[in-house]
Amino acid sequence: MKLEVAFSPVGLHPDDVRGRTVFVIDILRATTAMCAALHHGAKALIPVASTEEALRLAQTIGSDDLLLAGEKNCVRIPGFALGNSPLEMTEGAVRGKTIVVTTTNGTKALLAAQGARAVYLACAGNLSLAGERARELLEQDGDILILCAGREGAFGLEDAYCAGRLAQAALGGRRARRALNDAAVASLDLVRRYGDRWERPLARSGAGRELIRLGFKADVLDAARLDAYPVLPHFHERRVTLASQLVS
Amino acid sequence: MKLEVAFSPVGLHPDDVRGRTVFVIDILRATTAMCAALHHGAKALIPVASTEEALRLAQTIGSDDLLLAGEKNCVRIPGFALGNSPLEMTEGAVRGKTIVVTTTNGTKALLAAQGARAVYLACAGNLSLAGERARELLEQDGDILILCAGREGAFGLEDAYCAGRLAQAALGGRRARRALNDAAVASLDLVRRYGDRWERPLARSGAGRELIRLGFKADVLDAARLDAYPVLPHFHERRVTLASQLVS
Questions:
Q1: Mutation test of the interface with chain A: which of B25, B162, B181, B182, choosing the one with the most A Cβ atoms within 10 A?
Q2: pLDDT value at position A227?
Q3: Among A155, A189, A205, beta carbon nearest to B7
Q4: Chain A residue with the nearest C-alpha to that of B156
Q5: Which one of A61-75, A178-192, B94-108 scores highest in mean pLDDT?
Q6: Which of A30, A81, A206, B231 is the most buried (most CB within 10 A)?
Q7: Pick from A58, A71, A40: nearest CA to A99
């Protein structure tokens, strides 16, 4: 059995993900916002690496049902309909829409996971569902990788804590020390340290402090709401959709 | 004040180290072995990136007082006088010698720190001295970076724990949450988790388990000995020497 955590997509090689199941975490705020959007009826999200690519793609698709969303340094990109806040992803704003999203770190992590057999998105908002799927897959395949977006290529406390919560759920009480890489051990150590209070690691993280400083405290609190957006998103053929849609 | 930790040199840009003081940690085993060598009278160590470079440099220098040391995947490189074990760095073997060293992760971290204003080496073996210097520098300049070698570009539990111990020493009891980046917070969390018993995080880490599996358990135990090699090495002009030699 192998349960690995990567604290950042930097340094990850295509071979590290090939054929595996990857859970991507960017709790502040990309994966939380994507869960919120799908929970409120968005059709799909298309993560792209830059503002330019988002504009180009929007022109190519040219549909009325398309929205642009994204942030640069936490702030909504000028001209875009939405930022990267889960609180903006209301039913009124997103139902039936396809959303082209560009974010600083989350998109990079999703793109780094391309080539995996399956890519799921996780955050506090969908932890129980993601944890259930992670446990099933760990039992079935004996292998999962939890990939944190981190922050500008470096370690992010908020994602590492969330990785620990997901690893804990995937293990389901089993002791499997040999199955864990060092980052998985440390992320479980963080869960032991912070307990089940999501607010503490989120507000203590650099990303959380920066969001609070910029007036997005409500986003940090929203991202800390366990199972607030109970959906399981899947990243497949460059789109994030509900994973169950693939089965139906 | 700024006290930052980087869990790996991967993704570190020259701008991240320029003008700063960096403490490099590769406790299993490069920085421990280097402290052992200098403590036992070696003149200098020259870290290089590959076996080929080590051989080329040895030919160029062509001195009888030169030794080759290094490992690849934990095992001594064939034809080299020494491996990467602190226990090999006895006074009989190293006194008066200059040692060209190539190691998998430690050398990469040292080379990534080139361009810093000053680069020190740290491990359990010299923690008190390194911690004292780190505290002085943090008071004087208000800034240090602790750079972990990690393992193949990824997070290593043993180095992260050691980084936490060094950060704790540098802070000297001060609370300075705003000064810490997320990796520094997490490394201090690991110290809280494992207490002062070096053996636990070292033996639990992937690097430690691999060394034990290959028959190097004595090295892991040696690397866990607090202040066993009380020297403060400095990396300057491509050489690792005793820092005090620069002053004298």
A1: B182
A2: 98
A3: A155
A4: A182
A5: A178-192
A6: A30
A7: A58
Parallel, antiparallel, or unpaired: how do β-strands A98-102 and A44-48 relate?
A: parallel
Distance from CA of A2 to the nearest CA of B (A): 13
A17 in contact with chain B, both atoms CB, cutoff 8 A? no
Q: In what order do the strands lie in the sheet with A75-76?
A: A2-6, A143-148, A21-25, A118-122, A233-236, A239-242, A44-48, A98-102, A66-72, A75-76
Of B15, B69, B28, B10, which is closest to residue B45 (Cα–Cα)? B69
pLDDT tens readout for residues B175-211: 888 899 999 999 999 999 999 999 999 999 999 999 9
Unique residue bearing structure tokens 């072995």: B33
- What's residue B247's pLDDT? 42
Q: What is the mean pLDDT of chain A?
A: 94
CA B139/CA B116 separation, integer angstroms = 18
CA B58 to chain CA centroid, Å, is 23
Cβ contacts of A154 on chain B, cutoff 8 Å: 6-7, 11, 181-183
Mean pLDDT value across residues B161-187 = 95
Q: Do B155 and A192 touch (CB under 8 A)?
A: no
Distance between CA A163 and CA A176 in Å, rounded? 16
pTM: 0.95
Task: Name chain B contacts of A10, Cβ cutoff 8 Å.
Answer: 10-11
ω into B151 cis (within 30 of 0): no
pLDDT (0 to 100) of residue A64: 86
- Helix (H) or strand (E) holding B189, with range, is helix B182-194
Q: Does A181 touch chain B (CB under 8 A)?
A: yes
The contacts of residue B141 (CB under 8 Å, 6+ apart) are B21
Respond yes or no on whether the N-terminal peptide bond of residue A29 is cis (omega within 30° of 0): yes
Q: How far apart are CA A9 and CA A84, in angstroms?
A: 20
Enumerate residues 6+ apart whose C-beta is below 8 A from A218.
A87
Residue of A185, A190, A206 with shortest CB distance to B181: A206
Can you read off the two tokens belonging to residue B202? 């070292």
**Least confident segment among A136-145, B102-111, B118-127, B239-248:** B239-248
Report the residue of chain A nearest B155, measured CA to CA.
Answer: A183
Residue B136 CB coordination number (10 Å): 13
Q: Which residues of A touch B177 (CB under 8 A)?
A: 204
Would you state the torsion angle of the CA atoms of residues A234, A237, A240, A241, taken in this order, to the nearest 10 degrees?
A: -70
Note the pLDDT tens digit of each residue in A172-222: 988 888 899 999 999 999 999 999 999 999 999 999 999 999 999 999 999
Backbone angles phi, psi at B175, to 5 degrees: -95, 125
pLDDT digits (tens, 9 = 90+) for A14-50: 999 999 999 999 999 999 999 999 999 999 999 998 9
Contacts of A80 (CB under 8 A, 6+ apart): A54, A68, A69, A70
Q: Could you tell me which chain A residue has the CA closest to the CA of B5?
A: A155
